[in-house]
Amino acid sequence: MTNKRTKNKPKGKTQKMSNARAVLKARVPRLVHTLDQAAIEWARLLADPCNGRLTYSCYPVGGAGTVLMRLEADAILFSGATETGGLAAFVPGLGLGLASGTAIIGDTAASTITIAGGITPGAGFLASNGYSLRAVAACTQVCYPGTELNRSGIIGIGVMSAGTLIPNMTTADGGGNAVASPQALRIACQHVERMPATMVEARWFPGDEDANPYNYASRPTAWAQALNGRNAIVVSASGFPVSTGIRIRNVAVYEISLGSSTTTGQVQSISAPRSINTSGHVLKFLADKDPQWYLHTAQKIGRAIGSVIDYAATGMKAAGTAVNGLALLAA
């Protein structure tokens, strides 16, 4: 007598358990692991603010009524006759470049911090034509401007909340209660290295408050009070030769509402977001690709080149094996 029961067909309790699993699987929503096209374009721009294709962000409120612009500033700071250290910060969400206001001599010497127009992208243009702005992408690049023979010192760079960092420094408009030193700021940076032979870069990513446009007309007198919830790129430098300083280049992509920065301007319209993805989705996507995607250093370049060499070596080994196999077949 032939047993018609197949091994792959569960019966009784097994069948019920299988049905229960199917129902549970159907009830659990699938997590979205992919980005739509608008989010992908923004992710590319966040990862390459200097060269990426201009695109709008994925903030909850769209940027209708604004224009996209890429602006930059480049300057040598801390090159005084006695200076061997310096502090700098860039707060893209406020269109604001900051730097130590007094000469720093040594690693533990402290300074106040003030507005630095020389490292504020588009400072002159925004002062005359920018009514409000919202940061889309930004980066800070640091390099040594002196001779290789005299290259010395240490650099710290990173991205952090401006609200928790910068108000701890004494500011001209009463935004803080203490001064900071290169050593104190360097401890908070994600990346520290000897004065770079080429260039080190940090790419900005938005904080919670950066989704809200900032009224540029209020910046000159109220910037310290507007720091909370916005992210900043910070730089700590010390130990470099006097009369040399460091070169800082800040690049930013903005959604700008044009108008007079002192009176009125075109108000940004409230519109639907471009993407179903949020900024959190985009940042997670970038972090999954590389947890330190926002840093561009010589060490990372070296690791990438090493990976390419390993990959090429593996390919050559495989090709050699294939050639040997063909030779055996020919024999």
Could you outline the blueprint of secondary structure elements for this entry?
Layout: H1 13-27, H2 37-47, E1 67-77, E2 85-91, E3 96-100, E4 113-115, H3 123-129, E5 130-143, E6 154-161, H4 162-165, H5 182-187, E7 191-194, E8 200-203, E9 214-215, H6 219-222, E10 231-238, E11 246-258, H7 279-289, E12 295-296, H8 298-330
Antiparallel strand pairs: 1-11, 2-3, 2-10, 3-4, 5-8, 5-9, 5-11, 6-7, 6-10, 8-12
Describe what this molecule looks like in 3D:
This protein has about 325 residues and is α+β, with helices and mostly antiparallel strands. It has one domain (about 35-305): Jelly Rolls, CATH 2.60.120.20. The protein contains eight helices and twelve strands. Strands 1, 5, 8, 9, 11 and 12 form a six-stranded antiparallel sheet that branches. Strands 4-3-2-10-6-7 form a six-stranded antiparallel sheet. A hairpin with a 4-residue loop joins strand 2 (about 85-90) and strand 3 (about 95-100).
* Structural class computed from helices and strand pairing: alpha+beta
State the shape: globular
H-E string: HHEEEEHEEHHEEEHEEHEH
Q: What Rg do the Cα atoms give?
A: 27 Å
What proportion of the residues form beta strands (DSSP E)?
15-25%
Question: How much helical structure, as a percent, in the residues?
Answer: 25-40%
List the total number of helices.
8
Kindly provide the name of the CATH class.
Answer: Mainly Beta
- Tally of extended strands? 12
Question: What is the CATH fold-level name?
Answer: Jelly Rolls
Domain tally: 1
